[in-house]
């Protein structure tokens, strides 16, 4: 199928389907809100979504996700930044808080 040269939408789409490159790096658990702030959330055991908050930068939101991920899933979890940057977080902290101990 050939596209006629007078097609008005032909210049809007690129060959790779990639469009424009992202200006911000994508982080796990982070999304941009319409207000321009960054939000962070995580899926916890039993597939419950846990809201972590809104942040001024994507990096702050990504670090909030990392802390929650380590607490819920332990030191073997996938994070946005190296685990060595979070030595103060123990996986059981959040579980103990939830149990009231």
UniProtKB/TrEMBL annotation:
<dbReference type="InterPro" id="IPR036955">
    <property type="entry name" value="AP2/ERF_dom_sf"/>
</dbReference>
<dbReference type="GO" id="GO:0003700">
    <property type="term" value="F:DNA-binding transcription factor activity"/>
</dbReference>
<keyword id="KW-0804">Transcription</keyword>
<dbReference type="InterPro" id="IPR001471">
    <property type="entry name" value="AP2/ERF_dom"/>
</dbReference>
<keyword id="KW-0805">Transcription regulation</keyword>
<dbReference type="InterPro" id="IPR016177">
    <property type="entry name" value="DNA-bd_dom_sf"/>
</dbReference>
<dbReference type="InterPro" id="IPR050913">
    <property type="entry name" value="AP2/ERF_ERF"/>
</dbReference>
<dbReference type="Pfam" id="PF00847">
    <property type="entry name" value="AP2"/>
</dbReference>
<dbReference type="GO" id="GO:0000976">
    <property type="term" value="F:transcription cis-regulatory region binding"/>
</dbReference>
<dbReference type="GO" id="GO:0005634">
    <property type="term" value="C:nucleus"/>
</dbReference>
<protein>
    <submittedName>
        <fullName>Putative DNA-binding domain-containing protein</fullName>
    </submittedName>
</protein>
<keyword id="KW-0539">Nucleus</keyword>
<keyword id="KW-0238">DNA-binding</keyword>
<feature type="domain" description="AP2/ERF">
    <location>
        <begin position="26"/>
        <end position="82"/>
    </location>
</feature>
């Amino acid at each position: 199928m050939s596209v006629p040269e007078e097609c008005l939408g032909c210049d809007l789409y690129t060959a790779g389907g990639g469009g424009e490159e992202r200006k911000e790096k994508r982080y796990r658990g982070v999304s941009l809100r319409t207000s321009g702030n960054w939000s962070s959330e995580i899926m916890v055991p039993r597939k419950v979504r846990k809201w972590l908050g809104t942040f001024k930068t994507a990096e702050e939101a990504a670090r909030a996700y990392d802390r929650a991920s380590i607490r819920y899933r332990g030191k073997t979890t996938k994070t946005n930044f190296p685990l060595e940057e979070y030595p103060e977080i123990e996986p059981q902290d959040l579980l103990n808080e939830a149990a009231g101990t």
